[in-house]
Recover the amino acids of this structure.
């Protein structure tokens, strides 16, 4: 894609492509510093994949593109989001169904005792698991080795192997160990999914949160608007939060993504008793069922909305969800990054713009940092 020469007039507008969290936060930071921003998004709503909307049939607030739970260890990011929306207390707990039994995740003392039919105390469980772990693996090179090293083969095969194969569409030994490092392992009965001290749900959903971030007189938002180079006419800078390879019209090939399909169904009352039930067995085709009303336990609804979630490789035109950062993608990514670095006045940020598996708090922190750097440099920024 080409674009006209940048407008170097003081405070010339900035074009932000994408009205998800990255684009909204970046635009807000620039707007507050006096830079007018034009935020465009191809979709009919803001919020990107965090988008939430009420199901017209049940009234339940649905996480349209799958569950999003805000959690962070960063007090500044928590202060930032709570400026724009009222957050309600929500502690994420996940169950998993494996071989006909239900367990708590992440693996904690209850999971271990239930799985092995034992009554171990914390230090006993730690010692016991050490006997299960494959200590011949000193530096795990992939997901499978990471699991075998830390929890051993039995727990790996019951909880991680089938789920991961379904989620990523490849053998766990082809995946980086870092994916498993997202999940804690605990020798207490604490079954909170995340370790972070700040955790919650925006009372009116993530779309309302994003709208509030964008509600500034210096920000103009155009929805249903796909990027074309003429939109950059007169702009000082472009912040691109869409897919990195998409900016270059996929000229070097496509970066791989997993996409998700959701099969919606409704029921009366409570369908599964929790927000997220994972399905660990390989012969069940979906990875998990999300029952959205449990994300808002302060609301009352007679009916319930659930999503069965299926993961598959993204084809052209599918919504990209998880970047697949295997060896081939890493090599292609390097080539796109090299191209991006040659561009002046275009910066790539966010999950799609940098092709990384980002949590919401990191997305916000990075967008704020990019804005701060842009402002500190008087309206310029290194291109990647
Ligand atoms: N995972 C698994 N079994 C589970 C839950 C997670 O094997 O029941 C693995 C899976 O490979 C997943 C990774 O752990 O991609 C990270 O899980 P997390 O819950 O962080 O994934 P998210 O829901 O955020 O995509």
């Amino acid at each position: 894609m080409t674009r006209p020469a940048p407008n170097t007039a003081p405070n010339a507008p900035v074009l932000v492509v994408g009205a998800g969290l990255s684009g909204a936060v970046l635009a807000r930071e620039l707007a507050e510093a006096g830079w007018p921003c034009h935020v465009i998004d191809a979709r009919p709503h803001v919020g990107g994949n965090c988008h939430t909307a009420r199901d017209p049939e049940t009234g339940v607030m649905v996480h349209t593109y799958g569950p999003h739970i805000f959690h962070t260890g960063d007090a500044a990011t928590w202060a930032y989001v709570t400026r724009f929306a009222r957050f309600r207390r929500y502690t994420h707990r996940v169950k998993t169904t494996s071989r006909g039994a239900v367990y708590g995740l992440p693996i904690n003392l209850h999971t271990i005792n239930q799985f092995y039919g034992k009554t171990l105390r914390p230090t006993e469980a730690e010692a016991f698991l050490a006997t299960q772990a494959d200590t011949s693996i000193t530096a795990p090179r992939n997901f499978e080795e990471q699991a075998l090293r830390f929890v051993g083969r039995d727990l790996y095969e019951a909880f991680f192997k089938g789920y991961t194969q379904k989620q990523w569409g490849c053998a766990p030994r082809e995946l980086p160990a870092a994916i498993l490092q997202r999940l804690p392992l605990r020798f207490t009965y604490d079954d909170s999914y995340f370790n972070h001290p700040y955790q919650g749900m925006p009372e009116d959903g993530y779309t309302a949160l994003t709208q509030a971030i964008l509600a500034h007189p210096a920000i103009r938002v155009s929805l249903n608007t796909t990027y074309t180079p003429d939109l950059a006419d007169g702009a000082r800078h472009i912040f691109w939060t869409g897919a990195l390879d998409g900016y270059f019209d996929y000229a070097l090939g496509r970066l791989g993504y997993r996409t998700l399909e959701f099969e919606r169904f409704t029921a009366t009352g409570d369908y599964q008793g929790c927000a997220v039930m994972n399905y660990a067995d390989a012969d069940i085709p979906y990875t998990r069922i999300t029952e959205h009303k449990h994300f808002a336990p302060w609301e009352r609804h007679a009916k319930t909305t659930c999503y069965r979630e299926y993961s598959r490789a993204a084809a052209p035109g599918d919504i990209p969800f998880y970047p697949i950062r295997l060896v081939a993608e890493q090599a292609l990514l390097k080539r796109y990054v090299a191209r991006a670095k040659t561009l002046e006045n275009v910066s790539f940020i966010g999950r799609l713009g940098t092709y990384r598996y980002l949590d919401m708090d990191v997305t916000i922190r990075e967008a704020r940092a990019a804005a701060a750097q842009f402002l500190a440099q008087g309206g310029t920024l290194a291109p990647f």
